[in-house]
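Feature request, filed as a ticket because there's no other form

It would be nice if the structure record came with a short human-readable summary line next to the tokens. Right now we just get the raw output. Example of a typical job, pasted below so the devs can see what we mean:
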Amino acid sequence: MKNSYWLWIIALIVVNTGWYTVSQQGAVQEINRPGADFSETRKGELSTLFGSDVDYEIEHCFESINGGVYNASIIVETKSEVLYYWEGDTDEGCITYSSTAGEGEFVVITMIEEGVETTTTLTTWPMKSAFVLGLIIFSLCTVAVAFGESFVRAFVKKKIDQNHSIPKPKIDSFIESNGIWQDPVRPN
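Raw output as currently delivered:
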């Protein structure tokens, strides 16, 4: 196999590995965190680049400020549908919940007692559903560039060969004339 084919195969692997890395990146939305103003109700949006279902992950931690055990709960709703519900206390540590839902706005309702700090984050993968489509598009474009490069090289070589085959004019001699003017030199 020619070296150029191996280079294009490597380019195809690099391009699709890059697309895989980009498509698997998560978008993190902070709902509540220590040090920021606590809000009982926060709104957000689940969205995706391709398709209608979105993978998401909710991670929440409730910690007691003074060492006591306090009650806490969290509800995630969208279009009057409960996507996630948790109720417990500050001794349960951090909890992570993963699922899939349709696109749209959501509301996170957090209820805590006085003396509790909460850290709640929502992570979505908006480009994950477009991985296969992107893989096909990037592969086709890489192959098109590879064969396009071969076509352009052949075209340029043909034009250069045509330019070299045109005979160049010969100038046999200059005609000397009296004075500073002379007739223009013309090819034979």
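Something like this underneath would help us a lot:
The longest helix spans residues 131-165.
The mean pLDDT is 83.
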